[in-house]
Amino acid sequence: MGTVYKTHQQLEDEDTERYLKKQADIFERRKARREAEGYKCTVEGCGQAFKEMLDLRSHIYDHQQEDKMRMKCNQAKCGGLKFNNRRAYNEHMEMHRAEAKVKILNNIRSVLLYNKHGLLMEEFEREYRSMIGKPVPYKVAGYNSAYDLVSNIPDVVQVTHLDGGQTLLLAMPDEKTEHISKMVGNQRSNREGFNYRTGEVLANVGRNTLRKIEKAAEAKNRKVPEFMKKQVEQLNAIGVFEGGLDLLEFQEVYDQEFGYPLDFQCYGFYSLEDFVFHVLEGVVELEEESFRWKIVPRGYARS
Question: What is the pLDDT of residue 189?
Fold first, then answer.
């Protein structure tokens, strides 16, 4: 009997089952430890343990109110810094709140960034808890829910509403994380972990909706270095495109002139036509001749 190979879908289902079992095992170990040790107060010099999380939260709130009355900073890095002036204390605590909000936004971006086509809202909350170790702290940022938070930070998250009523979240990279976004954008799509449910939903959305999502993802990654545009301008200046240059010949000319191949796919483009049309617009143009594309100088008029 010949070897029986599993389908790609079967392998993905097995990977997801193993991942979820691993997460369940981790949860059970944490639960067992909590039951044995209780929920301990982490305030320096306290260490009191409670059986219920609500009791711990109430206890921590009492610590916070006590520190507020004594004008004492409760942040570990400040080492119990005390103030004699209420205004100075309030300004100091406001600085910590601003730092906390920046950290929250960075955490949200980092969770979403490694998911090429984003995450569903409910899966994002689970993924955030899994990666960061705590729920999305929307109240710290001044919002009533995690959805309110992500809906009001368009420079961090792009929110897309799908036809089935689901909400898809897509990371918007900043200058520090743009290189990570490009690498993730060029990787193959995967449906592992909490990405599995998102993949299932995206597999059933309409073509127009999926294309909209893909365009949003591409917009983050479809950029090329400025030097590459200047290289094409140099080729144009020496008359390489005069009379029209076949699209496939363009790759050969580029390789010969600069000593390395034109690797347009690493910048998120699907084809050479896609690259020329979207990146080199304003420098050269595409013209169809005998059912073949040719690159011509901008404004080129065939006689």
Answer: 47
